[in-house]
Specification:
Length: about 250
């Protein structure tokens, strides 16, 4: 890979300069991957972290600037405690192990979702990762952890309502104004949302932000996802025609 941090802007070396700017991924299928091999579900999640590493690298190579991945949803608390603990442990290990490399490569790390409810050591680590990479802009990796879009929208609305009550904001609320209260306030909307594992659902992921995203559902289980799958997703994205609610020029 052309390392992410070696030039002021992404090199697109071997990549596609017209790549979608922001790709978001619902990394699904870890459990099925493990089950098919007679392994515990946690083994699927561990291999899922490797797929995440591969994908961050591939995304940089292919000219994508923003990658957002769904790692733990507000609904995942319903899973057995041991699995929940594994997912928390994997986030911790990933940040601990990869932070310096991500930093060197000019990656800005963000973690979106509800901080409340995260164990203090993980919340602290996440704060540190965000702080230490805050001035990076070559590539933006956003990890949705303890994230649910409805929860995000409710939290945003609560903060907005408090600001109104305190007289801190006045005037009409616009789309752009509301977005300032979302966890993703500094991020462009995703152009492409990919879900692996062959399920056709959005599962409470980026409901506001993905309003006009192209959606792609691929059959591969997340631990098997690799650069060629991402390349093929980008090719399929290019076949789509994005109209943002308008009509194709010349169609009327
Ligand atoms: C969905 O597969 C996947 C998750 C709930 C967790 C995703 C987590 C990772 C890819 C690894 C963790 C990475 C970090 C950075 C914490 P599933 O378990 O629902 O699979 P199934 O539908 O086949 O059961």
């Amino acid at each position: 890979m052309a390392r992410l941090g070696t030039s002021p802007e992404p090199s697109h070396a071997g990549g596609d300069p017209s790549a979608p700017q922001h790709v978001a991924i619902i990394m699904d299928g870890n459990g099925r991957w493990a089950k098919a091999r007679g392994l515990p579900r946690t083994a699927g999640h561990e291999r899922g972290v490797e797929a995440l590493r591969r994908t961050v690298e591939a995304a940089g190579d292919l000219g994508i600037r923003y990658l957002t991945v769904f790692s733990f949803s507000t609904e995942n608390w319903r899973r057995p405690a041991a699995e929940v603990n594994t997912l928390f442990g994997l986030l911790k290990a990933y940040v601990q192990r990869d932070l310096s490399r991500l930093q060197q490569d000019g990656v800005r790390v963000r973690v979106i979702g509800q901080r409340e409810g995260l164990p203090p050591d993980i919340a602290e680590l996440v704060d540190r990762a965000e702080r230490e990479t805050a001035t990076n802009s070559k590539f933006h990796l956003t990890i949705a952890f303890n994230y649910g879009a409805r929860n995000e929208i409710l939290r945003a609305t609560q903060v907005y309502a408090r600001a109104i009550a305190a007289g801190e904001v006045t005037g009409e609320l616009t789309d752009a104004g509301f977005e300032q209260y979302l966890d993703t306030k500094d991020l462009p909307d995703p152009d492409l949302v990919i879900r692996t594992s062959g399920e056709y659902r959005i599962s409470n992921f980026l409901l506001w932000q993905a309003a006009y995203a192209e959606l792609l559902f691929v059959d591969v289980l997340w631990p098997d996802f690799n650069k060629s799958h991402l390349e093929s997703a980008i090719s399929r994205y290019h076949e789509r025609e994005r109209r943002f609610g308008a009509v194709t020029p010349g169609a009327t």
